[in-house]
Structure prediction request, 250 residues.
Amino acid sequence: MKPHVIVHCAAEKRLDIVENHPYSASLLNVGVSENLAKLAAGTGSFLIYISTDYVFDGTSPPYTEDSEPNPLNMYGRTKLEGERVVLQNNDGAAVLRVPVLYGNVERTAESAITVLFDQVLQSNKLANIDNWQQRFPTEVKDVASVCVQMAERKLQDPSLKGIFHWSGNEQMTKYEIACAMADVFNLPRRHLRPVTQEPVGATPRPWNPQLDCSRLEALGIGQRTPFRVGIKESLWPFLPLKKSQQTMFH
Ligand SMILES: NC(=O)c1ccc[n+]([C@@H]2O[C@H](COP(=O)([O-])OP(=O)(O)OC[C@H]3O[C@@H](n4cnc5c(N)ncnc54)[C@H](OP(=O)(O)O)[C@@H]3O)[C@@H](O)[C@H]2O)c1
Prediction:
């Protein structure tokens, strides 16, 4: 096969697994990326390597493509090393850094955003939710559209290469995200409690790794679904049915 475009998404992204199994995580996040970069260079395919805002330490946002990375954890370090081997081995490749993602899922646990809905639904149980780290939840369909737009542009203009950023533009903490989920479905939120101190003991995460997206924006590339629209579409299948609705479906 000689694909025109390869979007390389496969990675080990679970922070604790990467911390505890750095060798096998590196084989995937770095080694596979290097192999794909070489193979794509051989077939003349445009390679887009999906990377992460966790390459930054989050202390001085926003971050442009030229900002100095300084990952705080092993996941960020392996993804940054993946970026480097891709760009070293494939002159025409692109790195697309994105922040925390959400979208249509089969299980809420599939994304760090949708998983919060489990706590929102359990309104009889107090839930302490982080209100310290600043996040920019981004719809996967928007990222997919950006990849398509980059690929179409690349076919017209081979000079498109190097590092790019794409991100939603609504800054929210996980606590604010959970409240927004409750609001869009008119669910109670009194059981949701904000935790405003920096988390201790957990794998370190950046405080605010906001990505500046002006490089893609200047090319006229982008798509942003408003968070409340995207999250409603992603989560409605997980709403428990009321008794009357269950009867209707029977
Ligand atoms: N999720 C986020 O919030 C987020 C944020 C920033 C950046 N990213 C980046 O976005 C990319 C996609 O993340 P994601 O959240 O979609 O990750 P994910 O849900 O863990 O999915 C990773 C995919 O990689 C595949 N994969 C893993 N190991 C493989 C292997 N050895 N061979 C072939 N396929 C393999 C998995 O296939 P199976 O399902 O068959 O195992 C799965 O489809 C990653 O590069 C990640 O670093 C993600």
Notes: The chain has nine helices and eight strands.
